[in-house]
Amino acid sequence: MIDRNYPVRGAGIGLRRSMLKALREDPPEQVDFMEVAPENWIGVGGALGRKFRYFTERFPFITHGLSLSLGGPAPLDEEFLLRLKGFLDDHEIRAYSEHLSFCTDDGHLYDLMPIPFTEEAVEYVADRIRRTQDILERRMAIENVSYYAAPGKEIEEIDFIKAILEKADCDLLLDVNNIYVNSINHGYDPEEFLRALPAERIMYFHIAGHYVEAEDLRVDTHGADVIDPVWSLLETAYQEFGVVPTLLERDFNIPPLPELLQEVDMIHALQEKHRSVDQDASEEAEEIIDAG
Q1: C-alpha–C-alpha distance, residues 190 and 275, integer Å
Q2: Number of structural domains found in the chain
């Protein structure tokens, strides 16, 4: 378990435009931070821009990018990164993360495609992450993504992720649901995979729901409630890494706010449970030291 200074604390939600009215009318006490895709808000002005500013002035914010295409063949979009830097600075955003994937070629593919698990790809992506961090003048986190095929695979997914984190010297957004989805689709032990990740690089967690396409196929949708095996895997993550800030993702089929907040309450309950366990273990260790 690693004691870290995280950019946010507690439990958060992804802010969606459909939520703005309900969240402003009845601000939820259990929401400690919010996350947005910066592409959806950069350059937005007028009434909608003022509504967004209302929330960034009242909640800690982090951002999760959609379009940087870290593994894509096209040159890194440095013009976008400069606009992103201005947005992050203007709204005092606490952190920036992106998917460990690619989404562009000659144009936008409108999907998150898997990067080949190769040593060459490690060097290529790590170089692009380092350049991104230089332009933004801040560290970023990369997210372990869900994927449904592994074209050109030469090394294991876990080794690919760890090598990029090390070579790029960046942080990790650990998506618990993606580990579960991939474990079903590609036949590995999700707890073993989770425990192999470097604790010292974790910035925060994601948790979400998914769609069951078949017994051996899960689709990462962010459009359903979190299921019990994913909650259990989140508990394992807290046991392994401590109480890490955790964000609930919900992109469509968004329920009424009180229903959505029940899952935020579940995150808080699990965090409090493991915070108490950690405290008890710490006090017991102190007693043993004192007795010695």
Answers
A1: 23
A2: 1
